[in-house]
Design goal:
The protein is an alpha/beta fold.
Length: 400
């Protein structure tokens, strides 16, 4: 009676959500917790976006819409792809979904079968391999360590592709590392993919607008137009526009794939929230000036966290080019003993120790396929980050 499906048993709950929930529960119990686990900007949704949503409610835009988005929202996404990426998509090549994760879920579930393989560079966003497994396919994980800047090399990609390879998932800037690929690096990977026409490309560009030090972001189908017909360019409102709770993701790609994703969506969620789509139209087509202002704050926070973590014995923290995460290597802490006498054997032990000893919630590196490390989200206030890093330093200094 209590049996769950084989497909469900192939996956695990999201570790990042688990850490966020645990931190929230400890706060409810009265613990002084600094939660650095969630990938969620602390900025408010811009006022002009909120006003657009309120206007949509007042205009009674509260009914069912087209399964994969309103024409207005699709047109706004079409405009965004042209403006920001130089990519031309027809409205039949655009899908609106209930969050970026939903876009990826739809694409993979609509196209994968048992025996298919999906190439995923690690460290990776936690959901990629599990969505692949849920679809019955096999994730092929390639380790891209700190020694190579957490970036996949063309030789690694070439070696991983087989006749069974169906998709290559490419995330830049990266969650969890913040590593971002230059145009030349994207072009070198694209040249490999051009030799393997059976491979579809999922470009997860969700952190496109969150880059630093003048970094020039380039989407893979922009850099190599030869990949246009087999690339799904995925993005969303959550990160750049601080709209995580509005749950809008979107994608542009070949019409056959968009149609397949809509077919799946018609039997799962149906349309995304009509009010959220109206807000997204405003976000994508309105004044984008606030993005640079917020990026300046993110860059300041990045520099603060990187500096403080690199002053901590046993931690090595690379300086990321984008997103709002750092991914410090904690190999120097493995094997050390806590004041309570516990030996830290894994990065999960390190994360548990930081939470228990100092009330700092981070996500362990094994969740992202890259150990020993942990992820910190610096999408929160400067004073909170400074206190969190001080606590990490205190916890590390207490080890023997």
């Amino acid at each position: 009676m209590n049996r769950t499906s084989a497909a469900l048993n192939r996956i695990q709950p999201s570790p990042t959500i688990a850490v966020t929930n645990k931190a929230a529960e400890l706060k409810r119990q009265g613990r002084d917790i600094i939660a650095l686990g969630a990938g969620e900007p602390d900025f408010d949704t811009p006022d002009f976006v909120k006003e657009a949503a309120i206007a949509a409610i007042r205009a009674n835009q509260t009914k069912y819409t087209g399964v994969d988005g309103t024409p207005e929202c699709k047109a706004a996404v079409q405009f965004k792809f042209k403006r920001d990426n130089g990519l031309d998509y027809g409205l039949d090549q655009i899908s609106i979904n209930s969050g970026g994760k939903h876009s990826i879920f739809n694409a993979l579930l609509a196209t994968l079968d048992a025996g298919d393989e999906v190439v995923i560079p690690a460290p990776y966003w936690v959901s990629y391999p599990d969505i692949v497994r849920l679809a019955g396919a096999t994730p092929v994980v390639i380790n891209c360590g700190v020694d190579q800047g957490f970036k996949l090399t063309p030789a690694q990609l070439e070696a991983a592709i087989t006749p069974a390879t169906r998709w290559f998932i490419f995330n830049s800037p990266s969650n969890p590392t913040g590593a971002a690929y230059t145009r030349a690096e994207v072009k070198a990977l694209a040249e490999v993919l051009m030799r393997h026409p059976q491979v579809l490309v999922l470009a997860d560009d969700i952190y496109e607008h969150i880059v630093y030090d003048g970094f020039d972001f380039a989407s893979i189908a922009t850099v190599e137009p030869g990949l246009y017909d087999r690339t799904l360019t995925m993005n969303g409102a959550s990160k750049a526009y601080a709209m995580t709770g509005w749950r809008i993701g979107f994608a542009g790609g070949p019409a056959w794939l968009i149609k397949a994703m809509a077919k799946l969506q018609s039997q799962s969620t149906s349309n995304p929230c009509s009010i959220s789509m109206a807000a997204t139209v405003a976000a994508l087509t309105g004044d984008q000036g606030f993005l640079a202002e917020r990026n300046a704050a993110f860059q300041r926070r990045r520099d603060l966290v990187v500096a403080m973590l690199n002053q901590t014995p046993g931690l090595i923290c690379p300086r990321p080019e984008g997103a709002f995460y750092v991914y410090p290597d904690c190999a120097g802490l493995i094997g050390k003993t806590t004041p309570a006498g516990t030996v830290l054997a894994t990065d999960e032990d390190v994360a548990a120790y930081l939470l228990e000893a100092e009330g700092v919630a981070v996500v362990h590196g094994a969740a992202f396929g890259g150990s020993p490390a942990f992820r910190i989200s610096y999408a929160t206030a400067d004073d909170v980050l400074e206190e969190g890093c001080r606590r990490i330093q205190r916890a590390v200094n207490a080890l023997s």
